[in-house]
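User: Just a sanity check before I run the rest of the batch. Below are the structure tokens for the first item. I only need the designed sequence back.
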């Protein structure tokens, strides 16, 4: 084969390769365009879901508030005495309305987080005050169970600078979750220093535990673990997901360690002082 023929062969091969490359590039561009289209559709769907959750949460609040107000009026017997059985029935209505109200609050918080409209309001506070408030909140519920709720005294713990309401919501969800799986025994809330600049809050229980294969998904949206004890404390399946998102907004992280038949420990680790950049980014 002469040099001229070899050059012509190489020219033809090169032209073929250029054509294949151009075709591949066109395919890649079409794929990118399709991916951009799908990403935009997913973004629109996410925004629609957030708007729907926010709208429905607000709409549910008004009738639920009315139900709770009427239940309080009946319980206070302002319009006449109630029989013991009627008191039980009104208490059931009030309890169901409060459960629904908690679910609505979770949905509204989820919508705010996803829309980037959640507000972080840090302040200095004592852990003793936080634990006292939580103890008072759960006292009526724990009086009706065979489990004990124990708050370890936060002796020697410094003051914290973070959003105490978001932290209280994290711990409240942890405690409620522990109640689902602890028919008897104890639920213990504690706080300890984690290094020089972080604090670890732990909610441990002596309940039935959670299988290892289910633990990784506990902090995802709308996740619930089936349990024969679940009916005692119902929920939206959003509580632990919100705990994770709130912890991230506060510069921390959450986790769980659980052994079936022994119990579970849910924890959140937060900085003692909320970083300025975390507060600014979260507002």
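Assistant: Here's the designed sequence for the first item:
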């Amino acid at each position: 084969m002469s040099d001229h023929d070899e050059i012509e062969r190489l020219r033809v091969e090169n032209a073929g390769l250029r054509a294949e490359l151009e075709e591949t590039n066109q395919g890649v561009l079409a794929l990118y365009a399709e991916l951009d289209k799908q990403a935009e559709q997913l973004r629109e769907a996410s925004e629609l879901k957030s708007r729907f959750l926010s709208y429905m949460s607000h709409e549910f609040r008004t009738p639920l508030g009315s139900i709770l107000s009427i239940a309080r009026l009946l319980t206070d017997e302002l319009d006449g005495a109630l029989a013991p059985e009627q008191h039980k029935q009104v208490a059931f209505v009030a309890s169901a309305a409060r459960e629904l109200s908690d679910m609505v609050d979770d949905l509204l918080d989820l919508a705010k987080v996803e829309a980037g409209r959640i507000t972080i309001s840090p302040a200095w506070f004592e852990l003793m005050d936080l634990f006292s408030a939580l103890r008072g909140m759960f006292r009526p519920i724990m009086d009706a169970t065979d489990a004990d709720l124990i708050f370890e005294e936060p002796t020697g713990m410094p003051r914290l600078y973070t959003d105490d309401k978001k932290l209280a919501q994290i711990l409240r969800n942890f405690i409620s979750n522990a109640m689902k799986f602890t028919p008897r025994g104890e639920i213990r809330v504690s706080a300890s220093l984690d290094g020089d600049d972080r604090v670890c809050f732990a909610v441990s229980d002596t309940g039935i535990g959670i299988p290892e294969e289910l633990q990784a998904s506990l902090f995802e949206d709308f996740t619930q673990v089936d349990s024969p004890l679940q009916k005692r404390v119902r929920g939206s399946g959003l509580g632990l997901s919100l705990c994770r998102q709130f912890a991230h907004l506060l510069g921390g992280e959450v986790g769980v360690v659980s052994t079936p038949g022994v119990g579970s420990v849910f924890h959140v680790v937060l900085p003692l002082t909320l970083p300025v950049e975390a507060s600014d980014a979260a507002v």
